[in-house]
Amino acid sequence: xxxxxxxxxxxxxxxxxxxxxxxxxxxxxxxxxxxxxxxxxxxxxxxxxxxxxxxxxxxxxxxxxxxxxxxxxxxxxxxxxxxxxxxxxxxxxxxxxxxxxxxxxxxxxxxxxxxxxxxxxxxxxxxxxxxxxxxxxxxxxxxxxxxxxxxxxxxxxxxxxxxxxxxxxxxxxxxxxxxxxxxxxxxxxxxxxxxxxxxxxxxxxxxxxxxxxxxxxxxxxxxxxxxxxxxxxxxxxxxxxxxxxxxxxxxxxxxxxxxxxxxxxxxxxxxxxxxxxxxxxxxxxxxxxxxxxxxxxxxxxxxxxxxxxxxxxxxxxxxxxxxxxxxxxxxxxxxxxxxxxxxxxxxx
Length: 348
What we know:
FMN; dioxygenase; alpha/beta; 3-stranded antiparallel sheet; 2-nitropropane dioxygenase; Aldolase_TIM; flavoprotein; globular
């Protein structure tokens, strides 16, 4: 057999092996590849979501603070751009969660992701009784077991390497704790993933697939501002740091993003707010609100307006692997090829 033909034959074998490794995830999502797009507010809308799904992955609309009418329009607009499966991410603390679930069910969305907290029994029942599959986030093994028991059809375990709101534990540790223990439902991994060979390692540990956000945020189809994407290309992993809390009495929800003038001003703002609290100028409640309101609208300013110095440039540590702006289909093909090449190297 000629060398080129032999190589092609080995690649077919390696690709078949990869397909077996993430077969459970592919079947659950109904996709060619078990790769989900992370739900990123202002970024994961119709254009990026449909691009991920059309490329063989699984796009996920980030509902964020949308109301029911706006979400319904976004779902329909996404359907107009793709006939492939996609999901919707809803925040459990949204005051209109029940109505948002109803919108998803009426629109026949096949998968609903409940994020930002442990979903209530009522929310779980509403999703499942409506015929959709429920995906939930599990930040610890005890919660993973509870969610699997109470009706989640799949889980995402997201490490602290991820961008945006994060938990305290890395994916490396979460994967070791959770993947061997949760076998009854698919478990997808997320946080700091930027290469296909890394995804392959997680599949071999028992993951059903992977979720990526940062690389897709800098894709051609992402509506993020050019300055936002350029900041990703320039950045290294060590530029994506979690927000800093100065005083335990005033908790700051950790958010990972690129360090900029805004993050520096936030430290000054916290210190000044603490001074005003200690002098009696502010009550504890007022001081907490002063700190929480600092970032109000900051993500939109960065993503949509391109204010990458004063806005919140949320990014995971995989941002160092974003070296150019690429079409979504190219990113997914690259991830798959990296996994296949890793299998070929082993065979060799």
